Amino acid sequence: MFSFSTAIEDVASALAFLRNPKNENLRVDAGRIALIGHSMGGFMALQSGANDGAVTCIAGLAAANLGELAAIADASPETLEGFKHYSDQLRMLNGFSGEGAITELKAAGESFDLRLLGPRLAGKSIFLIGGERDQAVDISVFESLVTAYKAAGDIDITELQLDADHSFSWHRIRLAGELTGWLDQSCR
Predict the structure, then answer these.
(1) Tally of domains within the chain
(2) Could you give the 3-state DSSP secondary structure of residue 138?
């Protein structure tokens, strides 16, 4: 059954698989694995990178701060109706529902708040990318993460704010170039 917590566990399992000497035929440099995620994947990349000391490079593209959603649920439950409705339509995720997602977010609380990961991201290179026209993950989420990580210190933070929607529809080539440039410069 899908949940945010099991998705974080899945990233840890994938990292363990890639690092397993039995899988050396995959020719993965286990000491140089970077995590890159978009939206909920950005949440997973940042959470998982904070949990794994060997991951030193993490990029979050329009990273969703699910911990912020948990706080909103407590302060103003009616604002979560759109999220609940959206989640109910994700039928491809086994056992996932809006009600279940909100219950999990409330239970996770601050542990899902990406802004609080600063101390666990110390010594890592982080690339945050936000879209000014993003209607799924508001640009204020990107801005709050940049502010929090800069305040945490000892994080090599790179930030890019684009005039873009959630999918970075008209910036895909630039986005690919920015990501590969960051990987080449900050993650060698």
Answers:
(1) 1
(2) coil
In-domain check, residue 80: no
DSSP H/E element including 126: strand 125-131
Residue 11 forms part of a structural domain: no
Q: How far apart are CA 28 and CA 85, in angstroms?
A: 40
Distance CA 78, CA 84 (A): 10
Look at phi and psi of residue 123 and say left if phi exceeds 0, alpha if psi is from -120 to 50, else beta: left
Express each pLDDT in 1-38 by its tens digit.
888 999 999 999 999 999 999 999 999 999 999 999 99
Tell me which residue has tokens 């109910």. 88
Query: What token pair was written down for 115?
Result: 């802004």
- Asked whether the whole model's pTM tops 0.90, one would answer yes
**Closest to 101 (Cα-Cα) out of 10, 1, 174:** 1
Would you say residue 161 lies in a domain? yes
Say how far apart CA 42 and CA 36 lie, in whole Å: 7
Alpha-helical regions (H) of 39-171: 40-51, 66-75, 81-88, 98-108, 139-152
